[in-house]
Amino acid sequence: MSKDSKRDYYEVLGIAKNATEKEIKSAYRKLAMQYHPDRNKAADAEEKFKEATEAYDVLIDPEKRSKYDKYGHNAFDKNNFNFSDSFFDDIFKSFGGSFSGGNPFEDLFNFGGSSRRQKRSSRGDDLQQSVSIDFLDAVHGKKAKLTLNKNTICNHCQGSGAENPSDIITCSTCNGTGEIMQRMGFFSTVSTCSKCYGTGKTIKNICKTCKGSKINSSIELVDIDIPAGIANGEHIILQGYGMPSLNGGKNGDLYLIVKIKPHKYYERINDDILISVPISIQHFLQENEIEIPTPHGDKKIKLTHDTKLNGIIKIAGYGIHNARSKRKGDLIITLQPYMPKIDKKNKEKIDEIFANVKDSTFEEWKKDF
User: Fold this and answer.
1) CB of 244 within 8 A of CB of 302?
2) Pick from 202, 237, 262: which residue ends a domain?
3) How far is 282 from 152, CA to CA, in rounded Å?
């Protein structure tokens, strides 16, 4: 692909010009997982995967990104030099060492093998996955089984990405140094090899089992413990179920993001549970005792002449029993009075009763208008 037909690297990753390193990594991770040949069999998936990797390689490196922001794709054209003040600044910086671009696969998935520079072992990347649970399971907690993808080092290539050890060869572009030196008169610049990403090695034939990704995925049934009182959007960590490390470090973790399904009647506000209950006028008049369904069993409440028709009743301790904060929320009941259906005969009796009731509350209230 010529530089004239290349898309803007920021556009490729779908990020803003001022994107942070974290945003660049996140954007690339999503595209890499979407278009990796092992996951996506579409005809253009491999090309999009390579395009995203090229964009990431430039934007994640501060030196490369700075040059790209100044000169665009021309910044990496060997036949196109821009002798500006900033260009000479870059040259002088090179005398103290080499420009290290870094392998995007080492940053995100640790693809690319071991570098010629000694690297400390690093843990694999963390992953996220959503899990939906019922409202009452979130209230009480639950032990559940969940089907997950378990990512492990490829057994065939042992994480090298090559079909055979002999397929790992010395990079022909940098002759195994991992760096490219360019001389311009009295000056020279050293940059990371764009072919091997500084590893000094390339792969002639990629592993047929993992398609060069170095990772295999398998389905695994896992027991998870949902704590009582967990809130929507909180997470459960499954240690070691993230991406594996390819340089001797520990596996990353899997963050299960909890999505709580709405309940037909209950609503949660912090650790309190709200419910609206229809109550017949008959219960108010007769001052009956009624049973209110709660997540912790039925609770009896007594209606009295002091109970407001549309009032609110609070039952302490009948809300969320939060296992993390140890707090017990309340059940807040909103009474919704309604008029029961009454036949003609009973209505006449009620009319006779109320005919003898003297109440001037409404009349007194209306005098203020």
Assistant:
1) no
2) 262
3) 66
pTM score, two decimals? 0.56
Same domain? 136 vs 16? no
- Percent of residues in the chain assigned helix, strand, coil, to nearest 5: 25, 25, 45
SS3 341: coil
CA distance 51 to 31: 10
Closest CA to 268 of 295, 297, 298: 295
> Do 61 and 107 form a contact (C-beta atoms < 8 A)?
no
Q: What is the pLDDT of residues 208-262, one digit of tens each?
A: 998 888 888 889 999 999 999 999 999 999 999 999 988 788 889 999 999 999 9
Bind-site residues: 154, 157, 171, 174, 193, 196, 207, 210
Tell me how far apart the alpha carbons of residues 163 and 207 are, in angstroms, rounded to a whole number.
Answer: 4
Q: Yes or no: say if 256 and 224 are a contact pair by the CB < 8 Å rule.
A: yes
Alpha helices in 9-82 (DSSP H): 9-13, 21-35, 45-59, 62-71
Binding site for Zn(2+), residues? Answer: 154, 157, 171, 174, 193, 196, 207, 210
Q: Are residues 146 and 238 both part of a single domain?
A: yes
42 by DSSP, 3-state: which? coil
Residue where one domain finishes, among candidates 262, 295, 315: 262
pLDDT tens, position by position, 282-316: 898 889 999 999 999 999 999 988 888 888 999 99
